[in-house]
Write a structure and sequence with these properties.
alpha/beta, Rossmann fold, 11 helices
Length: 288
């Protein structure tokens, strides 16, 4: 069965559920491609026209797919839009990077399994088993998130773009400088006061981590990465989609591994050292 995913992140989910009985084509899979500026080729249009199932993100993230679907109508084609699966999961700030939410991934996988089983009932048990395996892998990710959330409660972080926003919500961490982040994402020049506040938070180390987009980045975003490193704020690179050969849960785990490594290596800021001092003093006194 032919499945076309606008982004490889959804393509790897389809492959995980469909296994040997699906042929998945992920349109955007090159990490050097900016998904916000992607333009589809005639080949992509033909693949979409032939697809039985099309997967996309929605929320304006991949409007080019909407245009392809409108230009190639088909009554037999099923379209799954991640943003429409569970609207309660959407962040109120309009962040479109839904693929870092394991509940959205779960809903996408469940919808794919249902469509495959309906179109290919002979292999229904096979799809159901693979969906169960996929969900088990998500449970591992959720357990890792819970561990980090417990170890670093209410951590203050920032990012050059809000790519990791849904994962930060799961971690229970506070993202600072959101106006700057959305300005960069939307290719809008931030106000000087916005830039100044953002840069000051880095220089004063009021944040514990800086997340940056590995795929794309403006000169301003790159400069802020350098400011963070100079100030001793650890940086963690994240991507907007998984590689086509990457397992979805392993992709999420790789970013969480990087987060944990950065936190373990960081040097506590002055306000953190001050808050730790009384505890150390009490501990020393108790030993006397």
């Amino acid at each position: 069965m032919a499945v076309v995913a606008a982004e490889s992140t959804y393509g790897v989910i389809a492959q995980a559920v469909g296994g040997t009985y699906v042929e998945v084509r992920s349109v955007i899979h090159d990490p050097n491609v900016d998904p916000h500026e992607f333009e589809a080729s005639p080949r992509t249009a033909r693949e979409v026209a032939r697809a039985s199932i099309v997967l996309m993100n929605g929320m304006g993230y991949d409007d080019w797919m909407q245009r392809l679907l409108a230009a190639n109508p088909s009554s037999s084609r099923e379209v799954i839009v991640a943003a429409q699966l569970d609207r309660a999961r959407l962040l109120p700030d309009g962040n479109p990077h839904l693929f870092y939410d394991t509940r959205v991934a779960d809903a996408m996988a469940a919808r794919i399994e249902a469509l495959l089983a309906r179109r290919d009932p002979a292999h229904g048990p096979y799809y159901a088993q693979r969906l169960a395996s996929f969900r088990a892998s998500l449970a591992g990710v959720d357990a890792r998130v819970a561990q980090l959330r417990s170890s670093y409660p209410g951590l203050k972080v920032t990012a050059t773009e809000p790519v990791y926003g849904y994962m930060l919500r799961a971690l229970g961490w506070v993202s600072l400088g959101n106006t700057f982040q959305f300005n960069v994402m939307n290719d809008t020049e931030p106000e000087p006061s916005v830039v100044a506040r953002y840069e000051d938070a880095l220089r004063q180390r009021r944040v514990s981590l800086l997340f940056y987009n590995r795929q794309v980045g403006s000169p301003l975003a790159r400069r802020m990465e350098q400011v963070a490193r100079s100030a001793g704020v650890p940086t963690v690179g994240v991507e907007e989609f998984a590689g086509p050969e990457m397992d979805y849960s392993r992709w999420l785990m790789s970013s969480l591994d990087a987060v944990q490594a950065a936190l373990r290596a960081r040097r506590p800021a002055a306000h953190e050292r001050a808050s730790q001092a009384p505890a150390r003093a009490m501990s020393t006194k108790a030993l006397r």
